[in-house]
Design a protein that fits this description.
384 residues; single chain; 7-stranded antiparallel beta sheet; 22 strands; alpha+beta
Amino acid sequence: MKHFLKQHALFITVLFIGSNAGCTYLREREAAQKLQTSPIEQATSVPNNLNFISEVVQAVGPAVVRINATRTVEVPGAAGNPLIERFFGSELFPPQQRVQRGTGSGFIVSQDGRILTNAHVVEDADEVTVVLRDGRSFAGRVIGADPVTDVAVVDIDATNLPRVKLGNADNILPGQWAIAIGNPLGLNNTVTQGIISATGRSGSDIGIQDKRLDFLQTDAAINPGNSGGPLLNAQGEVIGVNTAIIGGAQGLGFAIPIDTAQRVANQLITTGRVEHPYLGIRLIELTPDIRQEINRSNFGFKVDQDQGVLVVDVAPNSPAVRAGLRPGDIITEVNGVQVQNAEQVQDQVEATPLGKALSITVNRNGLTQSLTVKPEQLPTATNS
């Protein structure tokens, strides 16, 4: 039952007027022809140039970089051999330091050397080196990294650099072209292409419980080393930051929508940290099957609804517990906005500044209750 719930849970746009009558007539005819084009025909249109992928790569490739990171880690003494430690004692074999090296990708967003990448690419790095496609190498300085969204900003001391053009992830539809550029498995400047397979994949959907964002899913091949590289549309605009893969899966890659990555990056550049409002509740979307499972189990409460957003757990010493939220509460409104799923609840929480009162309406044992909670910064080691 716990496994069952965990899989379903979520921690919280010219009109031209000419003087020439003939031109006006032609424009009116063209407009009429466009109106006759069906939405399906418009949606399935593809670039006329069969080499558009190559042109995108030629234009964007120089702004994609390789990021080499080194970090020092401690390993058990005596190579962690329990037999040796048993007879000679672990104090004779103190922990040893070992240098780990990793490779990821990134892309330049400003001509003066600002780079976006994944937080896990530069996490705990003692040294970061950025290598451009033309072979130039620069020492990188981590401006900030946010593990919750896996976004990081790196800066290098350079000028007149090539840079990418950022797109808009809000307009993406499944089936559109997707192009990935990066350094998978150490193979520099590798290009893969596919389509957008899906949008709005939550962290819990893909088994990444500690990430509070929705991902773009693509079948463009993404492998270790692609992390931090750009996911591009057919116009060569960055629509995502390649980040997550599922081990053993084929044709399943994931990227952080560029709008989210840009928002996080701006906060990192401005303040060095990112605000993640936190309530301390674990939510699940009710279905008839989940209702039956809960009512058959010893959860300490019963559910009499087949739909809604159910609070299944409240973290100790959290804003939620101080506001009086309880397991078994069914959330119906947040800040006056009706909610039907956990993502809508999370969106309202994320839009609330830290310390500002948030009103939550719940159904508790058939009765409506109005509560007020003040979100706090997400604790470092929490999944909610």
